[in-house]
Structure formats: structure tokens, C-alpha cells
TrEMBL record:
Keywords: ATP-binding, Isomerase, Lyase, Metal-binding, Multifunctional enzyme, NAD, NADP, Nucleotide-binding, Potassium. The keyword Phosphoprotein does not apply. Bifunctional enzyme that catalyzes the epimerization of the S- and R-forms of NAD(P)HX and the dehydration of the S-form of NAD(P)HX at the expense of ADP, which is converted to AMP. This allows the repair of both epimers of NAD(P)HX, a damaged form of NAD(P)H that is a result of enzymatic or heat-dependent hydration. It comes from the Bacteria. The keyword Cytoplasm does not apply. Residues 9-215 form the YjeF N-terminal domain. K(+) binds at residues 58, 124, 160. The gene is nnrE. This is Bifunctional NAD(P)H-hydrate repair enzyme. CDD domains: YXKO-related (cd01171).
């Protein structure tokens, strides 16, 4: 699913109006109907609803919702924060349509704003995605009034004051929504940490924007959907064997960190790889043989860390390097020597990434189409510090294009950067996965999939989605607080089953 800019969304509206054809006021009515349908499913008419409306089309949406909720016997009050401003034509038309029985508060000062009780519902229709400057004056004071209340806040399309696809100034007044109901597509701001915190839970409401425009719209950003992944992940055929599904090598572990490579190994096997070999220092050999009997174990000559890679690396369809690896000097030399060879596909994580960051020449020799899986701090070491989330996205695109690699930038909405400049945001996963070892399980999943012959892009898309989905299934049973990395691996099978349904 492509993620559109605010400008493209306005163009989609205009295209729909011209080519469906439909009048703008009827398209607004359709959007309001979608909002009301969602509200009716989630909330009954027991609580009072305060619908805050600004002077533009976002306020027009709010007025239309007020009318439709009133018709359904909801307790509705309208709060107009439009003093001294021109109303959009559709706003004015919906204001004219408002039943006289609905109480309307016209605010000229903060003293006019109604008290909001804790059990009240607030629908934020002050400003939408067209906003390009911070809110000031009465609008900012209205936002602060909403935020200071304990009411449940639902934002129409976008929390007021938040920019849709640009950094919002840090001192701006922004509605802190509990829920955001976005029309047709999510906004880029929903998916980034700094702005996403204002959005709360978000839902996409289809409103029938013209599919021709949506299909042709050009955007570097997409949202992962199960439909896209089901085209890639197919049921296994009957007449296959372990050699059909690839031979992977995982390299990692050091004294005190054998658990990391063990977690990666178990996840690689659960991801369906046919054969798996795991190389650890001598201290990890017995641990691997007992903990992961399905894998073959190789022992480095050194007791506590890796000093050399296997001679015949081309027998493997993928090499995953990094979990628990450590940053010993001879480990760095071994990685440098490895990069001088013709290599199978690579998946690099953890200390493998830190070694790349310490040696820029090593980074310049990174084999094309490698998959890197940094968390934000590791990516900062590889690229450079980001001024804000949007700058980090640009750094991600630049880095992937410069090094011809795929970067899985981990986070709540993990972002997959590609050499072509496209970025894919994940939709699975939960805060319970913010625990040690879940990144190691992701490395194992990606190495296991890549060894099976999936393209680097499909490996990233399927692997990241499955990893998060397994975490979600685990959280349903264990809860987010109690979730551990082994749970993610345990629920991978159910994640595969759900995606293949």
C-alpha cells in the first residue's frame, strides 16, 4: 500500500471528484459516513460528544459527523474554533445543514471552550493534513485545552497541529489523540517515533478515492500488507527435500554471548531453512550441540571469540553474521578477509555492523545486496546522526543507494530501505518485543529465508512481517510484559500458517 503525501491526497480527492464524478460535498459526506460507521462500532451513544471544528474541510468533516451522529441519537455538541477566519465552501454548507437542535459553541477566547469531563468523547476536526505552519493563538489554546482534559480524543484524518509528511516543530501545539481515523491511506507521520506518539492507535477508513489515481501515484514509501506477502510465500511442494530449501551458515557468539547465536539458529530453522551450520568459538560448541540439535556445529580455533571463517563459504546459500559476535581485533580481521572473497548473500547484525562502522574501508567493501539489520543507534554509527525522523529516512535511502544494500531499520514500524530508494514500513510487532534477543531471532529468520532463494527484498519483507506477527501471537498468550525472544521463535509456525491462509 503506497503512502501518499498531503499534496497527493488532495490530488486524489480532486481526481475522484472529476473522474467518478462526484461533488466535493458528497465526497465529504462519504468520508463522514465512514467515520460514523467506525464510531458506531466502537462507541455507543451514552457519552457526550464534543466535536471541535476548524474553518476548513477538516472542520466540515466534523460538522457532517455531528449531524449524522445526532440522527443516531448521540449526545452531540459542536465547538467552532473559527473566529475571524474564512470558512471553506464545504464547511459552510455543512454548517448550514446542521440541525438547530445541536448545541453550537462559537469560541472567541479560551474562556468560551467547554469543560471536558473524563467520560466525554472529543472529535478533533480542527485542522487536517493541509497544515503547513504551527498553530497559534486560539487554535493552539484549544489544542492545549483538549490535551489537558482526561476525555477520549479521536482525530479526524490527522491530529490537529501535526504535519503529515514533514517534521513538526518541537514547541508546536499538537492534539494528543487516543485514536486517529485516516482516510484511504495512513500518513507518513503515523509511522515515525517523534510524530507517531501524537497519533495513538490509527485506523484507515476507505472512502472510495479513485483507484486509477491511487494505482498510478508515485511514492517511495509503502506499507506492508499480507496481500503483498502472500504473492511471495507459497505452500511447499510435495517432491522436495532438505537440499531444496537451502544451506545457511550463522557465525557469532563469544564468551558470555552464546545465547545470541543460539536464538538466531533456532529462528533460522523455524524459518524453514533446509540445512543450518553454526560457527561459534570453542566455548559455544557444546552449548550449540545440546541447545540446537538440528543444526551442525563448527568450532573456531579460539576459545572465546571468532578468528576465522570457514574455507569453503560458497557451499552456503546465505551467511548470517553478528549475533553475540563481539568486536575483538582478530574478529575484525577475519571479517575483512571474508569480504575479499566472492560471497553468497550476507545478513549482518549486531557486532558485525559495529565492526563495519569502525572500519569505513570494510564498509566500502560490503558485498552488493547484503542485508543489514541495525537498530537506530547502530544505524547512526554506520551513517551519521539524524536531525529528526525525516532526516533519518533520507539518510537511510542515501545509505542503501550508496552501498547497494538493504537495511532493516528496526523499530515499532520497522522500515526496510532498498538500493532503489523505496522504503517499506512494517505493520506487525508490539512493545513486548523490546527485549534482548528479538533482534537475534530476526537475523536467523532473514538468513533462513535468504538461503531458501528468496530475493533480498522479499526476504526482508516476509522476514520482518513474520517476525512481528509471531511477536503479536506470542503477546496474545504471554502478554507484552512477559514476552521474551524465545517466544517469538516458538510462534513462528503459527505466523507462517496465518500468512499462508
Amino acid at each position: 500500500m503506497k503512502i501518499l503525501t498531503a499534496a497527493q491526497t488532495r490530488e486524489a480527492d480532486a481526481y475522484t471528484i472529476a473522474h467518478e464524478p462526484i461533488s466535493s460535498i458528497d465526497l465529504m459526506e462519504r468520508a463522514a459516513g465512514a467515520l460514523v460507521q467506525w464510531i458506531e462500532k466502537e462507541y455507543g451513544p451514552e457519552q457526550p460528544w464534543y466535536i471541535f471544528c476548524g474553518p476548513g474541510n477538516n472542520g466540515g468533516d466534523g460538522l457532517a459527523v455531528a449531524r449524522l451522529l445526532f440522527q443516531r441519537a448521540y449526545d452531540v455538541q459542536v465547538v467552532l474554533v473559527t473566529e475571524g477566519q474564512n470558512h471553506s465552501p464545504d464547511f459552510q454548507q455543512n454548517l448550514n445543514r446542521l440541525p438547530t437542535e445541536i448545541p453550537v459553541t462559537r469560541t472567541a477566547s479560551p474562556d468560551d471552550l467547554p469543560s471536558l469531563l473524563s467520560y466525554a468523547m472529543v472529535l478533533d476536526g480542527l485542522f487536517g493534513s493541509g497544515l503547513s505552519r504551527p498553530l497559534v493563538g486560539l487554535h493552539a489554546q484549544a489544542v492545549q485545552h483538549i490535551n489537558n482534559s482526561a476525555a477520549t480524543v479521536i482525530a479526524i484524518d490527522l491530529p490537529s497541529g501535526l504535519f503529515a509528511d514533514a517534521p513538526t516543530p518541537t514547541d508546536s501545539a499538537v492534539v494528543e489523540a487516543d485514536v486517529t481515523l485516516s482516510f484511504e491511506r495512513p500518513k507518513l507521520a503515523f509511522l515515525l517515533p517523534e510524530s507517531g506518539s501524537f497519533v495513538g492507535k490509527w485506523h484507515v477508513l476507505p472512502i472510495g478515492l479513485h483507484p486509477d489515481f491511487l494505482n498510478k501515484a508515485d511514492s517511495p514509501y509503502s506499507l506492508l500488507t499480507p496481500e503483498r506477502l502472500k504473492e511471495v510465500l507459497k505452500p511447499r511442494l510435495k517432491f522436495t527435500h532438505k537440499g531444496t530449501y537451502g544451506n545457511a551458515l550463522l557465525v557469532g557468539g563469544s564468551y558470555g554471548k552464546i545465547g545470541a547465536i543460539t536464538l538466531a539458529a533456532k529462528a533460522a530453522l523455524r524459518a524453514g531453512v533446509g540445512l543450518l551450520t553454526v560457527q561459534t568459538p570453542m566455548v559455544g560448541y557444546s552449548i550449540l550441540q545440546v541447545a540446537v540439535p538440528e543444526a551442525m556445529a563448527l568450532s573456531d580455533a579460539h576459545e572465546q571469540h571468532i578468528t576465522a571463517f570457514p574455507e569453503e563459504v560458497n557451499q552456503y546459500q546465505c551467511i548470517g553474521i553478528g549475533p553475540g559476535l563481539g568486536q575483538a581485533a582478530d574478529t575484525a580481521l577475519a571479517l575483512e578477509k571474508l569480504f575479499r572473497q566472492a560471497l553468497p548473500p550476507l545478513v549482518l547484525d549486531a557486532d558485525a555492523l559495529n565492526l563495519l562502522a569502525l572500519d569505513r574501508q570494510l564498509l566500502r567493501n560490503l558485498p552488493a545486496n547484503s542485508i543489514l539489520t541495525p537498530h537506530p543507534k547502530e544505524f547512526e554509527r554506520l551513517a551519521s546522526p539524524a536531525k529528526h525522523d525525516y532526516h533519518r529516512l533520507q539518510l537511510l535511502k542515501d545509505f542503501c543507494q550508496e552501498h547497494e544494500c538493504y537495511v532493516v531499520l528496526k523499530g515499532y514500524h520497522t522500515c526496510i530501505g532498498t538500493p532503489t530508494g523505496e522504503c517499506y514500513f512494517n505493520t506487525t510487532g508490539n512493545p513486548g518485543m523490546a527485549t534482548g534477543g528479538t533482534g537475534d531471532t530476526l537475523t536467523g529468520i532473514l538468513a533462513g529465508l535468504r538461503a531458501q532463494g528468496f530475493s533480498p527484498l522479499d526476504t526482508c519483507l516476509v522476514g520482518v512481517y513474520l517476525h512481528g506477527l509471531a511477536g503479536d501471537l506470542a503477546a496474545e498468550q504471554e502478554g507484552e510484559y512477559a514476552l521474551i525472544a524465545s517466544d517469538v521463535t516458538q510462534y513462528l509456525g503459527k505466523a507462517f500458517q496465518q500468512l499462508l491462509q
